[in-house]
Amino acid sequence: EKGAADGGKTKEEVVVVVSPSFGGSQRKTLSGASHATVLREIAAGLEEEGVKARFIKCYESADVGIMASIASRLSGSGISIGIQSKGTAVIHQKDLSPLMNLELLSQAPHYTS
């Protein structure tokens, strides 16, 4: 960790923000994927699209919508991807309110009763 994140300076950047417990007290998603694998795959997918990932950790909230909203304002492109420890992810754009995201990828289908 390097301290507080600064605003992005390039439009070819997407900020990927993770929750406070990501990689710490929790190391796998609900589906069993390691957090390291999740980050590698997201970085690879962004690279295929010609953009660079910048990773930050959000300590202000564990709510994926709030995290992604904060990160989108730090992103040079205005786009962010928020990821909770359990694996729920959201794609967010800086001019949208926190709960008006571009896409929500829930882990709910992995729950069993």
Keywords:
about 110 residues; alpha/beta; five-stranded mixed sheet; 5 strands
Taking the sheet with the most strands, its summary is: 5 strands, mixed
SSE pattern, N- to C-terminal: EHEHEEE
N-C termini distance: 38 Å
* Mean of pLDDT: 89
> How would the global form be characterised?
globular
Question: Radius of gyration from the CA trace?
Answer: 13 Å
Unreliable residue stretches:
none
Task: Please give the count of helices.
Answer: 2
How are the strands of the biggest sheet laid out side by side? Answer: 2-1-3-4-5
Structural class of the secondary elements?
A: alpha/beta
Strand content: 15-25%
Helix content range:
10-25%
- Count every beta strand, where a strand is a DSSP E run of 2 or more residues: 5
Write the layout of secondary structure elements.
Elements (H helix, E strand, L loop, with lengths): L12 E6 L16 H14 L3 E6 L6 H11 L4 E5 L5 E5 L9 E3 L8
Parallel strand pairs: 1-2, 1-3
Antiparallel strand pairs: 3-4, 4-5
Give your account of this protein's structure.
The chain is an alpha/beta fold. 22% of the residues lie in helices and 22% in strands. The protein is built from two helices and five strands. A five-stranded mixed sheet has the order 2-1-3-4-5, with helices on both faces. The longest helix has 14 residues, at 35-48. The mean pLDDT is 89.
Q: What can be said about this structure in brief?
A:
The protein is an alpha/beta fold.
